[in-house]
Prior knowledge:
The protein has helices spanning 3-24, 29-34, 39-47, 55-75, 79-97, 106-125, 173-180, 196-200, 209-222, 239-250, 268-273, 276-286, 291-297, 328-336, 358-372, 410-417, and strands spanning 130-137, 140-147, 156-162, 186-191, 227-237, 256-260, 315-320, 342-347, 383-388, 394-396. By secondary structure, it is an alpha/beta fold.
Amino acid sequence: MTTRSLGQSWALDIALAQGGFDALHPQAKGTMEQLGHDHTDFDKVFELVRSGAMLPKAWASIAAQAEERAAHHERNGFARTAADLYTRAAVMWGRAQYSIFEAADPRKLAFRERANHCVERLGELRGGLVRRVALDFEGKQIFALLHLPAGPVHRAPAVILGPGMDMIKEDYIAAAERYYTSRGVVALSIEGPGQGESRAHGLTVDLTNYERAVRHYIDYLSELPEVDPLRIGMFGISMSGYWGSRAAATEPRLAALAAFEAPTGDFRTIFEQAQPTFKNNYMYMAGYDDEAAFDRDLRDRMPLGDLVGDIACPVLYGIGEFDELTPLEQALANYELVRAPKEIRVYEGEFHPLGGVAAEVFRFGAEWLERALTGEFATPGRDVRHYVHRDGRTTDGTADPQWWSGAVPLAIQRLRSA
């Protein structure tokens, strides 16, 4: 636990008691629905929550209800209804694990077994189109879910779906079907080092092993007859936008990257100014108890800096104007360093979860990748910028907010003069 987390846990409890999940992540329910949560489940959970300590029980309680209903429909032969409920249960069992920062805690392991059971059942009910994947990696294992289109598929494009730091591979089950496999695209929702089952089996995240894990997943996809090895892209939200940027800079086989809400700034904002749970979770993912050692070994070394200049594939970045993990001026300064064909969208008035535009972002990211993997956006020098207004308009040619009145933030001025 970090010093700030221990000292400020009361603030988290008050925020949850007074404002529910929105007090922590404004408008995040829209994003959670894209990750397979039903809004009624979500409301039931937060009716039970008045403090952070109550979160695991609440998620587990409502997950069990959905799983029980799924089993009822399965027994009566309603396969699709049962599969949908198993999906809802799986993502909630995953969320129940989140607030337990001890890999060997029996409750965390029990919740993982329940999630695995739900995935096994929905995979069976969907005729094997959802398959659990376990790969050996650097003496440990990494885990993923393979999502296949219905019907015969051969040498199709594939997209790696990267979860944020507080997400798991199951969070993409609904999105994989809705946005990728329904369009004939193979999807692989992953857990890298430090996440989900990978962390439970002892694999922690360090500065560079996540991009090596992405490379290993590309190896796996490239060997599948269903996948065209020359058309493998990645969709990342939050921390996976960061890890995806590192992967795109170091793995030439990655053919396109769409990254939303990616922390691309100084990492003091996310770890010292944002909610203490972010740093708590990342220290758990990295296997650190010593906060000073974590700061030295990871926090201070994590900024992307000039690394993004090594990206060669087309990239898309999207970020909320008031993302609380990366100040917009830092995100735009990072974008200036990208030399590959690139595009950026800034969403007016949005915070980190991009909850107000979540459905648009998930669909747009998928469609952008589908086109990028045909080579459409590979023109050298491509630089497309949009500022997306809340009233439906877009300002094209710039991603800068209009209220800046044409002024260039110091972060970008310094970069241009360096």
